[in-house]
Write a structure and sequence with these properties.
mainly alpha, 116 residues, 95% helix, rod-shaped
């Protein structure tokens, strides 16, 4: 029993360093496996890059449309206000002219009344 125990311990101590060592052939096999596993991922990344590029083009197109839409809204809202403001300014100037003319008429009426 002692011999079996001693031989078991001996074989385990001999086998331990051999299990943990990797040589160049093992490393090359690992590299090949990793390369094979990475190929589909690289292809997926390339497809995703193309999709992102097309989406960024669409987004820039949408941004341009939004800019034009905002300009259109500003014009649609602002133009009537400008017209109303311009019209009210014109109305005020006409009211001032009417007031001046009415004062002149009153002055002329008083002169006519004073000098018949």
């Amino acid at each position: 029993m002692k011999t079996i125990l001693v031989l078991s311990i001996l074989f385990c101590t001999i086998a331990l360093p051999a299990l943990g060592a990797l040589d160049d052939a093992d490393l090359n096999q690992i590299r090949l496996i990793v390369k094979e596993e990475i190929k589909p991922i690289k292809e997926d990344i390339a497809v995703l890059k193309i999709e992102v590029a097309s989406l960024s083009g669409r987004v820039s197109g949408i941004e341009k449309m939004m800019t034009w839409l905002m300009v259109l809204i500003v014009v649609a809202v602002g133009l009537p206000q400008i017209i109303i403001a311009w019209g009210s300014r014109k109305d005020r100037s006409l009211e001032k002219q009417i007031e001046v003319l009415s004062q002149e008429i009153e002055a002329l009426k008083q002169q006519k009344i004073v000098q018949p």
